[in-house]
Write a structure and sequence with these properties.
GO molecular function, one term: thiamine pyrophosphate binding
Strand order of the largest sheet: 3-2-4-5-7-6
Bound molecules: ligand TZD
Distance between the termini: 94 Å
Number of helices: 22
Helix content: 25-40%
Protein name: Oxalyl-CoA decarboxylase
Radius of gyration: 25 Å
Largest sheet: 6 strands, parallel
Strand content: 15-25%
Number of strands: 19
Organism: Pseudoduganella albidiflava
Cofactor: thiamine diphosphate
GO biological process, one term: fatty acid alpha-oxidation
């Protein structure tokens, strides 16, 4: 006689969801399709949030900014090949910016891909991903899903955070596995991003260098914001009395109105400082590689970074401090009293104050003007004055002139509230970051967008409306990329490469999805619309008409454009 013993089984679909939830991950950003539609349905049915997008790059950007805000990897889920490739830009950008995220894509079976037999959406995704992310893994057996998710989480957040690719062939999801065995295969990641303490001698060396400094400067990078060591970083700045300069996404670690902020004297302090403490700021193109006329006189650098190989990347580092930023800053603070470091010279502080006063007066003169139509400055003054009333607002910002001017005009008062084009200067992060920030924080978001930049992700207005997110998008509409005045030299029918439809009404776009559209032609109209939109807490778009002649090609990066011989 045979006995039918029923064995409870589960499958790969359920195991992926169980493994994510087992590690306290509650949200997936993605775009459904073969073979992951049912995975998205199941995630939602099992109590996770699945935020469905209109393009995978925006879902990836939302996952990346969620990782930056929480220090837990954001999850992006896509279909194979084209969907994976659309997500790959966001994965690469996350890795470049050190945002922890995991791109999970369905894929074709190995035996078909490796024989190149022409499967539906066939691509060797694991090998395509590898050069563009921090780590990449593939899972072939259901019992390995738990360890695969664990490896991806640890790789994304440990050491220097970044993007991780996890390849899930379609048949893995349908694989069945005995339920008890499945449960035992789950892995809860313990201490995913362990503290990495600096060597005592490195701390002493750094403090000794600071002791000898006459014109010290602290430079805060977005790594300092990511570290969530806000109190210690503020204490280090305030106890040393050293002037500081925040990179754009580090703004708000101390309020931009802080007396020690040297932002209004940026060029002066970079050129004149003698010892510079880099806190989670890499000496890449954003800091002129630490050399040349931007940096003027020879400097000595203290560099705090979690990656030892970051040291000497561009210039010699006199005092490398390798470890996680919280541990490094904490060690400096602990050694401060015993190091006998004096407050900076009054002459140095006075020179900075004078330069700040001069530059602030120049900016005030620009901001006080009220040209018709608006220019970047009058529009940004209006936004600045409204946002002053919302110190915890999330601000997304991209464009060329819109990015450059907003960075110095709109003050930040709290850390991890400004999200922008970052290390790559990438366009297209706008709506993805806005959705990621709104879903992650549950708080209002204002996205200040160049009209070209907005165009990269504008279809996500429907996503914002569908989830009723408190996102107000302000489109700086100057009729084109950088500006709207270029002309086709041939006189032909085609407009110039940088010009858009004149006087477009982007506010009508959001109305198509039930959002609130505003059309603003003056700073007063802009301020009124912005205040109303934030108070309403609903999806809104303000079409801000900006003088089409106001832009500069490539904003402050004009010098990066190669000059064609014909132009010389
Ligand atoms: C993905 C991508 N494509 C193209 C660019 C080149 N680019 C582009 C296309 C910009 C848009 C500038 O136009 P805008 O209207 O957004 O901004 P402003 O009007 O504020 O100058 S800024 C910039 O560097 C980029 N950085 N990233």
């Amino acid at each position: 006689m045979t006995h039918n013993v029923s064995v409870e089984v589960t499958d790969g679909f359920h195991l992926v969801i169980d493994a994510l939830k087992h590690n306290d991950i509650d949200t997936i950003f993605g775009l459904v399709g073969i073979p992951i539609t049912d995975l998205a349905r199941l995630a939602q049915a099992e109590g996770m949030r699945f935020i469905g997008f209109r393009h995978e790059q925006n879902a990836g950007n939302a996952a990346a900014i969620a990782g930056y805000m929480t220090k837990k990897p954001g999850i992006c889920l896509t279909v194979s090949a084209p969907g994976f490739l659309n997500g790959l830009t966001a994965l690469a950008n996350a890795t470049t910016n050190c945002f922890p995220m995991i791109l999970i894509s369905g894929s074709s079976e190995r035996e078909i891909v490796d024989l190149q037999q022409g499967d539906y959406e066939e691509m060797d995704q694991l090998n395509v991903a590898r050069p563009h992310c921090k780590a990449a893994f593939r899972v072939l057996k259901a019992e390995d899903i738990g360890i695969g998710i664990a490896r991806a989480i640890r790789a994304a957040v440990s050491g220097r955070p970044g993007g991780v690719y996890l390849d899930l062939p379609a048949q893995l999801l349908a694989q069945t596995i005995e339920a008890g065995h499945a449960q035992r295969s789950l892995v809860k990641v313990i201490d995913a991003a362990p503290r990495q303490l600096p060597a005592p001698e490195s701390v002493e060396r750094a403090l000794a260098l600071l002791k000898g400094a006459k014109k010290p400067l602290i430079l805060l990078g977005k790594g300092a914001a990511y570290a969530q060591a806000d109190a210690d970083i503020r204490a280090f700045v305030e106890r040393t009395g050293i002037p500081y300069l925040p990179m754009s996404m580090a703004k708000g670690l101390l309020p931009d109105t802080h007396a020690q902020s040297a932002s209004a004297a940026r060029s002066f302090v970079l050129a004149e400082a003698d010892v510079v403490v880099l806190v989670g700021a890499r000496l890449n193109w954003l800091l002129a590689h630490g050399k040349g006329k931007t940096w003027g006189k020879p400097k000595q650098f203290v560099q705090i970074d979690i990656a030892p190989t970051e040291m000497d990347s561009n210039v010699a580092i006199a005092a490398p401090l390798v470890g996680d930023i919280g541990s490094c800053v904490g060690a400096l603070l602990a050694g401060l009293d015993g190091a006998g470091i004096d407050k900076p010279d009054e002459e140095w502080l006075g020179a900075i104050a004078q330069r700040k006063e001069q530059n602030t007066a120049k900016m005030a003169a620009l901001l006080d003007r009220n040209p018709v139509p608006m220019n970047f400055h009058s529009a940004l003054r209006s936004i600045r004055d409204v946002l002053k009333e919302y110190p915890d607002i999330n601000l997304v910002n991209e464009g060329a002139n819109t990015l450059d001017f907003a960075r110095s005009i709109i003050d930040q008062y709290q850390p991890r509230k400004r999200f922008d084009s970052g290390t790559w200067g990438i366009m297209g992060i706008g709506m993805g970051f806005a959705i990621g920030a709104a879903v992650t924080s549950g708080k209002p978001v204002v996205a200040v967008e160049g009209d070209s930049a907005f165009g990269f992700s504008g279809m996500e207005l429907e996503t914002i409306c569908r989830y009723e997110l408190p996102v107000t998008t302000i489109v700086f509409n100057n009729n084109g990329v950088y500006r709207g005045t270029d002309v086709n030299p041939t006189g032909g029918k085609d407009v110039a490469p940088t010009v858009f439809v004149k006087n477009a009404r982007y506010d009508k776009m959001i109305e198509a999805f039930g959002g609130i559209g505003y059309h603003a032609t003056t700073p007063e109209e802009l301020a009124r619309a912005l205040s109303e939109a934030i108070a309403a807490g609903k999806p809104a778009l303000i079409n801000a008409v900006i003088d089409e002649t106001a832009g500069t090609e490539s904003g402050r990066l004009t010098n990066l454009n190669p000059q064609s011989a014909a132009k010389k």
